[in-house]
């Protein structure tokens, strides 16, 4: 199935030779700009945030980026593109009403990912036994009695982008699946609500019973399986149910101690930087991570200190630093007593 090519380098505003750090910086800048919590036009920002996340899901993963780059010159076309090596992923055989062979195609809506991503990097595919639309002429004979043999529809799997805010509180999303018979052009769209439970984990499958391929001859419909992919966040790194954040502090804050405000997934908190804190020191805030299981207990929030120095100073500031250098007994190469 031909899909519109997505130029992820253009989405992030980086060159095709950009380093991993360049890609990460570009993602964080755009993700902060378009995060729905801070943008005024939330609807537009939400779509841009999903687009930026999708681009980072590919370019921020070395394996995905290598596979994307292997599309080669096709990226220049900018139009619709189908990779023959992947054509089987979204088109599957069926027996048509006249006994001919064809293939069903389907597209998702509301999952947060484009059709291009689903075809090349998602898992939007049914399992063996997929039937799509119910076919009354399929598999009629059963032991010579002329009865229709029931055939269950297949489970269908796709990806769904879930934000950390949805992990924290849970959510209900409207998802649509459009099935198309490319031979007849017959199309059927099914729309339904999917509950995303609080505490859902990256890679977890959300099962929607009876929303997969239709059965034939009285067989049961398959299920829709949505594999969770956590949206990358510009400020937090997810490690299990714990969240990690890096906070920049000035040299005097590290030496004298300070209280700094840091963001969490559900509001800001104040963190005390003890006097003498070095770069790389980690502070823990209990219970401000992500939910864990049905008990709704939460992981922890870790703040890693990064001591920053000014890139340039005024003459007056330089004089003070020079005065400190003359008077201080601290030697970082031997330690201080």
**In what range is the share of β-strand residues?**
25-35%
Taken in chain order, the helices and strands follow as EHHHHEEEHEEHEEEEEEHEEEEEEH
Report strand order across the widest sheet.
3-4-7-8
Q: Which regions contain 5 or more consecutive residues with pLDDT less than 50?
A: 83-103, 124-141
Average pLDDT over all residues:
81
Number of strands: 18
- Gyration radius, rounded: 27 Å
Secondary structure class reads alpha+beta
Overall body shape: elongated
What can be said about the biggest beta sheet?
Answer: 4 strands, antiparallel
Report the total helices.
8
Alpha carbon gap, first and last residue: 69 Å
Fraction in helix: 10-25%
Structure description:
- There is one protein chain.
- The chain has 337 residues and is an alpha+beta fold.
- It has helices at residues 8-12, 20-34, 42-59, 62-69, 115-120, 164-169, 251-256, 315-327, and strands at 3-4, 80-81, 92-95, 101-109, 125-126, 156-162, 171-180, 187-196, 205-208, 224-230, 237-239, 242-249, 258-264, 267-273, 282-285, 291-292, 297-298, 301-307.
- Strands 3-4-7-8 form a 4-stranded antiparallel sheet.
- Helix 2 runs antiparallel to helix 3.
- The longest helix has 18 residues, at 42-59.
- The chain is elongated and about 95 Å long.
- The N and C termini lie far apart (69 Å).
- Residues 83-103 and 124-141 have low confidence and may be disordered.
